[in-house]
Write a structure and sequence with these properties.
It is a single chain. By secondary structure, the protein is mainly alpha-helical. 70% of the residues lie in helices and 0% in strands. It is rod-shaped. The model has no long low-confidence stretch (mean pLDDT 85).
Length: 23
Protein backbone atom coordinates (compact mmCIF):
# COMPACT_ATOMS: atom_id res chain seq x y z
CA UNK A 1 0.00 0.00 0.00
CA UNK A 2 2.94 2.31 0.68
CA UNK A 3 3.74 2.26 -3.04
CA UNK A 4 0.32 3.72 -3.82
CA UNK A 5 0.24 7.51 -3.27
CA UNK A 6 -3.54 7.43 -3.15
CA UNK A 7 -3.53 4.97 -0.25
CA UNK A 8 -2.77 7.67 2.35
CA UNK A 9 -5.54 10.13 1.29
CA UNK A 10 -8.04 7.28 1.01
CA UNK A 11 -7.18 5.99 4.47
CA UNK A 12 -7.51 9.53 5.86
CA UNK A 13 -10.93 9.92 4.23
CA UNK A 14 -12.08 6.61 5.67
CA UNK A 15 -10.84 7.53 9.15
CA UNK A 16 -12.53 10.94 9.02
CA UNK A 17 -15.79 9.47 7.75
CA UNK A 18 -15.74 6.83 10.49
CA UNK A 19 -15.06 9.41 13.19
CA UNK A 20 -17.90 11.56 11.86
CA UNK A 21 -20.30 8.62 11.88
CA UNK A 22 -19.26 7.66 15.41
CA UNK A 23 -19.58 11.20 16.73
Amino acid sequence: MSKHPMAWPLAFLVLTSLSLCLS
